[in-house]
Amino acid sequence: MPIPFRRPSAEAARSLNFTQVTPGQKSRPRTAVRTVIATTLATITLAGVAACGPDKGLRVEPEGETSPTQFEPGNSDAGPPNKPFSLTEIRKTIVEASGIAVTGRATESAQVIDDCEECLTFGKPFLSGDKKFQVVTVANPKQKSEDIAGAVISEKDGKPRLELIATGNQMKLNPGKNGTLVVQEAMYADGDDAGYPSGWSVQVFRLHEGRFEPGQRFTRLNGET
Known about the structure:
Layout: H1 10-15, H2 30-52, H3 87-96, H4 107-115, E1 120-122, E2 126-128, E3 131-140, E4 143-156, E5 159-167, E6 172-175, E7 181-187, E8 199-208, E9 211-221
Antiparallel strand pairs: 1-3, 2-3, 3-4, 4-5, 6-7, 7-8, 8-9
Helix pairs in contact: 3-4
């Protein structure tokens, strides 16, 4: 963090001249002058660092990272992303449900999935207790590098069940700590260019009595949490 610096006036600069001496006074050695200057600069630097301090607000990863740093990644022993259900089976489930899940509605996303086969891809699966959940993401048909929705699938009576569907700009859906799910989306203000949002919103979903319920939401807009 840059330290604000105000240039002193010429008169103030003269008063701070360490080599200036009064009549009859011995001049100071150069080494002493350098020591004083170095000590002063070190003190200012330390004060600036202390004033900046670590940002205790919400930290969201830059583009390209996989999850907000405030949430630990989920377990890595959930097995392959395409088990027990294939992408074809999951697509059929979402379309037939018209994008209406146990938690959340996204009928427009279901239409995208039906019309754009390559827009649906697997995300990282996770476990909550002993139960496995598969994750799929839905890409923007016009900009496939950006996701507009994510869905969570479980197994019920041997068939895929649409548990949760969430939508958002540049959405990221990732497993969190203790079987939670972290949904991150971009927040745009008036005048923002595409791909350059003013902030981010992060919400945690927790599994409670067989349903994913929305929990804490953190937002950061224009650098403020």
